[in-house]
Amino acid sequence: MKKRDRTPKTYARLTHPLVRDEKGGPLRRATWDEALERASAGFREARETHGPDAFAMLSCARATNEMNYVAQKFTRVVMGTNNVDSCNRTCHAPSVAGLSAVFGSGGGTSSYAEVEHTDLIVMWGSNARFAHPIFFHHVLKGIRNGARMYAVDPRRTSTAEWAESWLGLNVGTDIPLAHAIGREIIHAGLHNRAFVERATTGFEEYAALVEPWTLGLAEKVTGVPAAAIRELAHAYARAERAQMCWTLGITEHHNGTDNVRALINLSLLTGHVGRFGSGVQPLRGQNNVQGGGDMGAIPNKLPGFQDILDDGDRRKFEVAWDTVIQPRYGMTLTEMFEAMEHGDLRAVYCIGENPAQSEADSEQAERRLRALDHFVVQDIFLTKTAEMADVVLPATAAWAETEGTTTNSERRVQRVRAALTPPGEAREDIDIICEMARRLGHDWKFADSESVWNELRALSPDHFGMTYDRLEEQQGLQWPCPDLSELPSTFLHGRLWEPELADRGRLAPFGLVQHDPPVDLTDEEYPIRLTTGRRLDSYNTGVQSGSFASPLRRGEYVELCPEDAEHYGVAVGQEVRVVSRRGAVTAPVWVDPALRPGLAFMTMHFPDEVDTNQLTIEANCPIAGTAEFKASAIRIERS
Q1: Which of 96-110, 408-422, 428-442, 544-558 has the lowest mean pLDDT?
Q2: pTM value?
Q3: Tell me, what DSSP letter sits at residue 292?
Q4: Which letter does DSSP use for residue 5 in this model?
Q5: What is the 3-state secondary structure (H, E, C) of 306-372?
């Protein structure tokens, strides 16, 4: 194979503030005083001229809980809007929406240790061996302890190599497959009747919904053999304990929330929730995606997943913060970009995010960001997004230069500590935000990250029992942890198994969701389905990981199956043009026998080299706002 001369772009660490004197002009070095004054003045002007909803905050899923708490407080108290969101919207917002609709909270129901002591593991739309390698170590321990694993994925991934059976479904047919599994469980008399009757609602309607999805029909729609569907249905229902795990293969669709509800339905049908070893587990891809939402850095919830529309919850925060909170939801990340298009959103404060390269249809996203009146980026690197900003503020790295906490996929809050001195003039995120607030009339006094955390604890019952001392002593605690002395349960919703109806709380509703194929249909002009994902050696848009060498890294390719490579007359390493209805990129070919004919694969890790998101479609889930990164239609053109 011809060696490529492309190397990932190396991003410069930000060590001093930058400002732009005029639109289109260059960024230049500035003092902190000048940069903060420019930044705060632009936010003030947007609010006074166009109203509070002309402002939006993009918070950071890699920063600490404390930073996210202060960021959403800045948005609601200083700017007077609920327009705050993060890249949670890009990945697992459908998981939060689906889990909240069924159980009332947006966290996975199980702990990692339970995967080691379960009987059956379903990895649905998840190449966890590459995308979540730490969690996959727990999966391997479970397999060694006797658990059977099933992999449901359009690709025969590295994760699927460990599975007892691989169900290679067509992209976007998760709901038909889930419905067929549910129907088979019901027809075989394997559903947990006692649990369904005592803990759920809507079963009869669900049974009627899935009735048409016979094994034969499901095979035609999904491409999965009927026998394999039946095997998984019986194995899942008969298991004493089972874990249903998913990632972006489920959520990054235009109907991502419906996909999540379809999987949760199976756990309700079999009673695989609310017990040790049995649960549903969305796997988060960044260190604090869960925590950002927990801290209220989302447009519809206050810290601790307390609903903005609840008068009592809202009033509690208004008293604590001495402010008035809008009694309506703010804009999601998706809606923010639409508002940029229409001129309704004028000023954005972006902390640690790179939407210019992470959003679907990236060319459109970049155009919208450039149209803002005022754009402030706070980050550790001069990303492509930061290069477009009017003011750039250098921050500390949350994982090595900051004190605080983060929350992982199992709802475990853990301490992080500063081990390094930040370079140059870089400052703590919280200090920057508080100084911005002071210049806008709010003089907040936080002595340290612990004081921020204690304010959060006083307002969020789920976190009240988590003092810094206890977090250190216990090496992390899982929410809900309302008590200062008792340890929380490792799993959620055990209430559903209580013998007395009054003790079960809100019953779990089945989700009545319908199959809805991908928006970007394949046809003669665009005959190949492109799906996207992650690789083990790289991270997100490559800003952090691209600067480090890896023996596994081979850069970005368009991956085709051997049959398609032969059909198009292309070989490994040959440059081709990949074209969708939105844009085109040039990439070399990689041949992967794990792919099936008509299916291609690319990642988002090297956008400076191959901008895959020029191809993806901004078709969004109407409930969660997540785009359909997993299902674009493309064609291959030989160079």
Answers
A1: 544-558
A2: 0.94
A3: H
A4: -
A5: EECCCHHHHHHHHHHHCCCCCCCCCCCHHHHHHHHHHCCCCEEEEECCCHHHHCCCHHHHHHHHHCC
